[in-house]
Write a structure and sequence with these properties.
Length: about 575
Amino acid sequence: MSIPWKIRSVEDRQNHSVRPVAARPYRTVHATKESFYTVFGYDCSKTGDTISTIVVGIDGATFDLFGDWLDDLPTIAGILERGTGARMESVTPPVTSPAWRCYATGKQPSSIGVYWWRQFDRDRQEFVGVDQIPLTSKCYWEYLDDPDETVAVLGVPLNAPPREVNGVLVAGGPYADPEEYTYPASIQETLETEFDYQLHPSTDPASADHPERQEIVDDLEKMIHQRFDVAEWLREERSPALLNLTFFYVNHLQHMSWRSDGVKHLWQVIDERLGQLLTDTDDVVIHSDHGLHEIQRVFYLNAWLVENGYLSTHEESTSKRQTVGRVIDTVNDALERAGAKSLVVRSLPDSVVDRLGEYGSDRIIDTSDFERRIDFERSAAVGLPHGVVYVLNDDEATTERLREELARARDPETGMEIANDVVDAAEVYPTPLPDDAPDLFVRYADGIEVKDVNADDESRVFGSRAKFRADNHLEGVLMAAGPSITGDEAALDRPGLVDIAPTALHLLGEPIPEDVDGDVLTDLFASGSDPCERPVESQSPGRFEATAADVADHEETKERLQDLGYLE
């Protein structure tokens, strides 16, 4: 199957002088559910209850990865042929955190107060983990409260601890606590006894000598089957109006091995099981939280800020840090092997933990050795991975000069540009901006990974690809098909991640909360269908009061993020 025009890469489009005609002669094939699923070759004789809408999320999905595999992915290829698809713009920065919360709420990062896995607290002048920032906005499925139209939400990342829903919710990685990850709580026992449900991987591609080890692929495949098995059970037992099914840990392997046989195999498993699940479904939406691109070079943002006079650090004996650091690393390794690291850290006085974190390269607390030595009084800016920049002196001239210099930065070894663009927060977020928002974002060029600092050589500004073969990209995917969905491949013009929540609510016949940042993608709907003919309505937004019970276990979450390679 050829890749539809709208989802080709920019480079691919530039190589085509004639644009394909947008009109599709088969767009009316969706007149009935039976005709829709017959073209996929599915058995439509099944008499089970129908799910109105299935929304499938695949972390890191990108046409640049699976586009060449469509001949071996018949379900996804069929959705693109009979429905529509487009490259979807993620949020800025395009990172799992905050992206999945932005998807769930229809809001930009500034509206939920989360910008990366960690962020800079300007008042305290320190870095904090966002797992301790509760989500007070409602997720779109929490607006579905009709007792006759329940929901089943399975595996959405960052959706932990689980909140009450009108149906069933199973929290997803990496925040979910193995001790308590479902609503209602009674569902958890069923998942574990009947499905041998595995919340997190038992293998670790990020630390493996060879990420293509068969046991890693087998482990992730088992988790995919478990989630589809649970989804089919929920369909039969609960008949939800909405089934939201998400696969987070597939991206675990995509980061490490990119276009490998193992990654392709996992996509084929998802495709086959998805085809089986769609037999009793009206409409299906498939999306990612962000895309991926292959890494060629690494840009160390904080090292560049130091080199260019924007960031200063307190000097300390390197030999002292290295000696004590080796001792702490040895202790850390021993505690991890004994499975006691989290317990020990929680039992230590804060003063002791602070000193351990200062020297231990394994970073058993939030702040790295480098970050602890930042001299904020003499610094004008500080950065985080994926191009997040905080300007510390609130000076517009400094911000503009920094923006211009970052935009001109090039790798002296390869000549590669670092950024496609450097944008101000006000260009990508609704205004007025909250005080906690970063100031600038480096929208890094293809082939570039942006990290904060090289732990082995803090002065290194550029380097070769490190742990990951592929890193996050702004362009993800959005695909849809079904009786309510158009067959026009050109229908979607640069849809955004935050548009999915309001679009799903409208598809399900619900009014849209007035505080969402996204829009209903009205062009997605087939002419004459109910969501096309029905006007978009609004409703007052809902919010939750934050409590201590609304945040994840900090130490366990941090260790899991380190295992995934998201924190170092």
